[in-house]
From TrEMBL:
Occurrences of domain GAE (ranges): 666-781
Spans traversing the lipid bilayer: none
Keyword Hydrolase recorded: no
GO BP, one annotated term: intracellular protein transport
Keywords, ordered alphabetically: Cytoplasmic vesicle, Golgi apparatus, Membrane, Protein transport, Transport
InterPro entries cross-referenced by the UniProt entry: Adaptor_Complx_Large_Subunit (IPR050840), AP1_complex_gsu (IPR017107), ARM-like (IPR011989), ARM-type_fold (IPR016024), Clathrin/coatomer_adapt-like_N (IPR002553), Clathrin_a/b/g-adaptin_app_Ig (IPR008152), Clathrin_app_Ig-like_sf (IPR013041), GAE_dom (IPR008153)
Classification via SMART domains: Alpha_adaptinC2 (SM00809)
GO CC annotations, alphabetized: AP-1 adaptor complex
Organism ancestry: Eukaryota, Metazoa, Chordata, Craniata, Vertebrata
Designated gene of the protein: Ap1g2
Family that this chain belongs to: Belongs to the adaptor complexes large subunit family.
Listed name of the protein: AP-1 complex subunit gamma
Location in or out of the cell: Cytoplasmic vesicle membrane; Endomembrane system; Golgi apparatus
One Pfam family it belongs to: Alpha_adaptinC2
Coiled-coil portions: none
Length: 786
């Protein structure tokens, strides 16, 4: 007995009535069997009904791929009811990964030329939803004709389809460039909004289009002025703001047209001031228009007064109750702080108040902006606020806050004592969260400040006596006690509260540090070295120090055991040399002040790069090359580069700082090897000065599109005569609109000086779609292999 097929409404009710997932699967399996049988029978009157049920099943997450060919049959049908369901099925079941989507190109072309508006609308919607680059190239002329049709319904959908085509294939810009100027004179809201969007896409992807549309800046200014003063139509007003969607889109286009162009910027300055002063800020729609106005002012060549007005608007946003608006204001001020530092400084108190936000994203943005506002004139006040925030900030912000305070203190410290006090406060509050170079920087600073040796050692001793759990603090304190323990025992420092410390107390504290389960191996190394140095600085007997050192001669930690054994030998065989060997460390001279200033300037960027680029291990590089057999003559196993042998002469010259370094090699020109939809891959080349056959290739991938690139992987292969090692990339996500690029270094050894060629494979996700590109680079500069 044949079970009758359910209607769509009955199927929905039965699925919703299922009490368990097993019952739901049973209902769907039975109905899918009925749908397959109906498709095999080929009943044209039931096909669209069966496909409609299959699309509902697909939306529930069950497989429905067997309905793809039925979509093509329904699209080719002359009946509108069939076409409607067929086009809907094509949008849901087909995409660029299926070759079947190319089979509907002719059907879409025929429907676009029929002249029936509902059918043309269905075809345009489908093309704009799943049209591939090849389909867009085949149907571009038909869409261009529809842009000039008398029906507003068709023109609006044709404009939106043109936007999709430009995103898929920017080379089609020349097709849609002429109609855009005429469409700007439209009064229909949907057509005008779509035209502005289309022009924006053209300008972002085609420099020629950008130059062409700079001529229509006065027309765009007039459209926006009309919106602001008289309004467009009441049906498109939101909360008293006249058509905010159209205003925002026009402002974005003006920002692109006025960027790096003085004449266009001057034409829109007065209008931007009018929009900024007349827009209502009590509603969210007005805030959206104001934000786009501020972003436009920031990007174009605007007047100084206009930029101050933009900063003041962002300052008002900081006082808004909406967290989203405050976050947007902090992000925009962070972009503006480098170019208009003094204007942003006026809102410093409001920014500091945002540090206490309970929302983690808001407090992080406020921290970044607060650190950017620190300068030599406000460093004391800002450091007090930041140190207070450090004591109460969430654990995930402590590392960034501590590192930012240390960098700002190093750059703007008014005195060495203030600098030392600031670092000590950070180490005491969040010592476990500071960067690894904090210990070396503080020891260097204390060593240079000879007049503060007594003050520093007493402060560090007191801090260590209160808390030995902060490892960086314990390491600096142990080093300082070992170097200046005699000054600690003298007790004649006038800058601290007077207190007397005995030799036994100092030794007991260092022993406690050695025995603590919280001490790291490096901390124990500092402590045992400090004990050894105190043997030459204390006046009493050294038997206690000898006993402690001898105990650690059998320690399980190899590093600590080696130190203890060497110190025992120093006590026994070379006791007459001990005082000379354990003298105070000489002052470390910096090589050049210019290099120091540059390092201070670049530490923030270096911190990001160091955190994002872990040092790769050889097995990781070998795994990459094993997985990637791109070239025919690439061996199946990984090729490892031999370690670079340091040049004795070069090392001696570096050690003695002699001006005998060889002249730097001539720079090798860079090369752009890949560009698609805003994703660019550039190669830069540096030849190692001491190993001529070694080439360091830096692959820099940037993203100028509006969508983030995620899961980015770059793999490379070279011919058999080369040896290559891939280092780990700095990340796998490339932020949109010119965010921090991803870098990766290839080390290529070419002992035979053969012609170099690379084969690259890029895999990533962009705009919700997976992308894979494999290509060969055979036009590398001659300097890379000769």
């Amino acid at each position: 007995m044949v079970v009758p097929s359910l209607k769509l409404q009955d199927l929905i009710e039965e699925i919703r009535g299922a009490k368990t997932q097993a019952q739901e699967r049973e209902v769907i399996q039975k109905e899918c069997a009925q749908i397959r049988a109906s498709f095999r029978d080929g009943d044209p009157l039931q096909r669209h009904r069966q496909l409609a049920k299959l699309l509902y099943v697909h939306m529930l997450g069950y497989p429905a791929h067997f309905g793809q060919m039925e979509c093509l049959k329904l699209i080719a049908s002359p009946r509108f009811t069939d076409k409607r369901v067929g086009y809907l099925g094509a949008m849901l079941l087909l995409d660029e990964r299926h070759d079947a989507h190319l089979l509907i190109t002719n059907s879409i072309k025929n429907d676009l030329s029929q002249g029936i508006q509902p059918v043309q609308g269905l075809a345009l919607c489908t093309l704009s939803a799943m049209g591939s680059a090849e389909m867009c190239r085949d149907l571009a002329t038909e869409v261009e004709k529809l842009l000039l049709q008398p029906s507003p319904y068709v023109r609006k959908k044709a404009v939106l389809t043109a936007v999709h085509m430009i995103r898929k294939d920017p080379e089609l810009s020349s097709v849609f460039l002429p109609p855009c100027t005429r469409l700007l004179r439209e009064r229909h809201h949907g057509i005008l909004l779509g035209t502005i969007t289309l022009i924006t896409e053209l300008c972002e992807r085609n420099p020629a289009a950008l130059r062409h549309f700079r001529k229509v800046v006065p027309q765009l200014v007039q459209i926006l002025r009309t919106l602001v003063t008289t309004g467009y139509s009441t049906e498109h007003s939101i909360s008293g703001v006249s058509d905010p969607f159209l205003q925002v889109q026009i402002l974005r286009l003006l920002r692109i047209l006025g960027r790096n162009h003085e004449e266009s910027s001057e034409a829109m300055n007065d209008l931007l001031a009018q929009v900024a002063t007349n827009t209502d800020t009590s509603r969210n729609a007005g805030n959206a228009v104001l934000l786009e106005t501020v972003l436009t002012i920031m990007d174009i060549h605007s007047a100084a007064g206009l930029r101050v007005l933009a900063v003041n608007i962002l300052g008002r946003f900081l006082l808004n109750n909406d967290k989203n608006i405050r976050y947007v204001a902090l992000t925009s001020l962070l972009r503006l702080v480098q170019s208009d530092h003094s204007a942003v400084q006026r809102h410093r108190s409001t920014v500091v108040e945002c540090l206490q936000e309970t929302d983690a994203s808001l407090s992080r943005r406020a921290l970044e902006l607060s650190l950017a506002l620190v300068n030599s004139s406000n460093v004391r006040a800002m450091m007090q606020e930041l140190q207070a925030f450090l004591e109460s900030c969430p654990p995930d912000l402590r590392a960034d806050c501590a590192s930012g305070i240390l960098l700002a203190a190093e750059r703007f410290a008014p005195s060495k004592r203030w600098h030392i006090d600031t670092i000590l406060h950070v180490l005491t509050t969040a010592g476990t969260h500071v960067r690894d170079d904090a210990v070396a920087n503080l020891t260097q600073l204390i060593g240079e400040a000879q007049e503060l040796h007594a003050y520093s050692v007493r402060r560090l001793y007191s801090a260590l006596a209160e808390d030995i759990s902060q490892q960086p603090l314990a390491q600096v304190a142990a080093w300082c006690i070992g170097e200046y323990g005699d000054l600690l025992l003298e007790g004649n420092c006038e800058e601290t509260e007077p207190f007397q410390v005995g030799e036994e107390e100092v030794l007991a504290l260092l022993e406690k540090l050695l025995q603590s389960h919280m001490s790291l191996p490096a901390t124990r190394g500092y402590a045992i070295t400090a004990l050894m140095k105190l043997s030459t600085r204390l006046r009493g007997d050294n038997n206690r120090i000898r006993q402690v050192v001898s105990i650690y001669g059998s320690c399980v930690d190899i590093e600590l055991q080696q130190r203890a054994v060497e110190y025992n030998v120093l006590f026994q065989k070379y006791d007459h040399m001990r005082a000379a060997i354990l003298e105070k460390m000489p002052l470390v001279e910096r090589s050049d002040s210019q290099g120091v200033d540059e390092r201070k300037e670049n530490k923030a960027g270096a911190q990001i790069l160091e955190a994002a680029a872990p040092v790769p291990t050889e097995p990781q590089a070998a795994k990459l090359l094993d997985l990637l057999d791109l070239l025919d003559d690439t061996p199946g196993h990984a090729q490892h580069l031999p370690p670079l042998a340091p040049s004795p002469g070069g090392a001696l010259a570096h050690l003695l700082d002699l001006p005998c370094a060889p002249p730097p090699p001539a720079p090798i020109p860079g090369l752009r090897v890949f560009e698609r939809e805003g994703v660019r891959l550039d190669l830069s080349f540096v030849r190692h000065p001491e190993t001529p056959g070694l080439l360091l290739v830096t692959a820099t991938t940037s993203n100028s599109s509006k969508e983030d690139v995620t899961r980015f992987v770059c793999q490379a292969a070279v011919p058999k005569s080369f040896q290559m090692q891939l280092q780990a990339p700095s990340g796998d996500t490339i932020p949109a609109q010119g965010g921090l690029p991803v870098t990766q270094v290839f080390r290529i050894l070419n002992p035979n000086k053969a012609t170099l060629r690379l084969k690259l494979r890029l895999t990533y996700n962009h705009s919700g779609q997976p992308v894979q590109e494999i290509f060969e680079v055979d036009n590398l500069p001659v300097e890379t292999w000769q």
